UniProtKB/TrEMBL annotation:
<comment type="similarity">
    <text>Belongs to the LemA family.</text>
</comment>
<keyword id="KW-1133">Transmembrane helix</keyword>
<dbReference type="InterPro" id="IPR023353">
    <property type="entry name" value="LemA-like_dom_sf"/>
</dbReference>
<dbReference type="InterPro" id="IPR007156">
    <property type="entry name" value="MamQ_LemA"/>
</dbReference>
<protein>
    <submittedName>
        <fullName>LemA protein</fullName>
    </submittedName>
</protein>
<dbReference type="Pfam" id="PF04011">
    <property type="entry name" value="LemA"/>
</dbReference>
<dbReference type="GO" id="GO:0016020">
    <property type="term" value="C:membrane"/>
</dbReference>
<keyword id="KW-0472">Membrane</keyword>
<keyword id="KW-0812">Transmembrane</keyword>
Amino acid sequence: MIALAIVAVVVIYAIVIYNGLVRARQMKEEAWSGIDVQLKRRADLIPNLIETVKGYAAHEKETLEKVVELRNRAQALPAGDVAGRAQAEGMLSQALGRLFALAEAYPDLKANQNFAELQATLETIEGEIQMSRRYYNGAARDLNVKVESFPSNLVAGVFKFVKAPYFEIDNPADRAVPSVKF
């Protein structure tokens, strides 16, 4: 009877651990979805921004093409490639910074209502991306702690739970403030 009770407690404990791992994995997936939505919003806004800037800064074609190229590269990455997406989005953020710095050289563009609205929307989205990234990284941390901690690591190993990558910038140059020279 005591042996049966011990086995029952161990099985119930394993079920509780498994459910906790599933919950942590789902939180990580939901958090990644939040990042993906914000990145999609930003990607959808970029063509409108490029068209607005084109009319004022036609000879800045290289900067405009770079933003479009980086946007397309980020969009082409598979949804689950967190590290690749983080790197591509970091480069895109830097290119967008250069694009907005161009506005300083074009007073008519800077005064354009459509450009100002697009810039404000993009700034809002960038803030949302930051919040989503923090939420995702917290969910990834919680999952990683469960996957690596004893005794949940035993259950995680049996059911093939793996650590989640963080959404972070690997390249220190991507963290730098973009420099724009005229």
